Input
Amino acid sequence: MRVLFLLVTLAIAAAGRAETVLITGANAGIGLEFTTQYAARGSTVIATHRRERTPDTLAELAARYPNVRVERMDVAQHAEIDALAAKLADTPIDILINNAAIWQIGDRNDPNDRAAQAFGSLDYEQFELFMRTNVAGPIKVAEAFFANVKASEQKKIINLSSLGGSNSLRARQPDQLFWYRASKAALNNVMRSLTTELQDDGVIVLLFHPGGVRTERLAALGSRSSLAPEESIGDMIGVIDKLTMADTGRFLYHDGRDAPW
Output
């Protein structure tokens, strides 16, 4: 995949055309690595975040790469999505990456915070926030920026999901992240519906399970996740580069293998 990534990077540079990529939740973890790799290969990157001020991670990237444009957009706030869509109304977006999501509210190392997603102590108010952020957010972003994607050359909507949303796999431990899993299963479903909705427009819709990526968040939990961010995201970019309409509606591992629904 890394050889393919380099070849595509060189091809884009030779053609003199920079693809445009919009990435939600771009200031940390998987989103930041997507932003970094696309910026390094010369793509125009619209990196969004929900903080009150520009996060240092994105400020540093924007200072290093003039092709990085930082914008504020909380995917749980529909008015903010509409505002950015209006601002970018005349900008074709080749690749829209729905990455922003919540996995845990509070400290995952705190038993009281974990209990909010555990059977017997479920916090139902949290359920609404998970669904608004992880399901309504991505479909609202896709709806708001559909015209931009349709006007582009590549026409790709990419969604970061999880095996936690697979209906054919059981959770392996009692502490089951009920709300996170439910939201990812719902995301998979709405994006499969979107596949049918947009197929006549030539827009590709895809879902990824990125694998156990060693993000800052998981490192803080003492996770021994096996995948370095640059490996998982590099693999996914390689897959994204090769997508055709024959792939629309698929749910894939980071390396392009089919993931179980």
Observations:
- The radius of gyration is 18 Å.
- Strands lie at 20-23, 44-49, 68-72, 95-98, 156-160, 204-209, 251-253.
- Residues 2-253 form a domain with the Rossmann fold fold (CATH 3.40.50.720).
- Residues 12-16 have pLDDT under 50 and may be disordered.
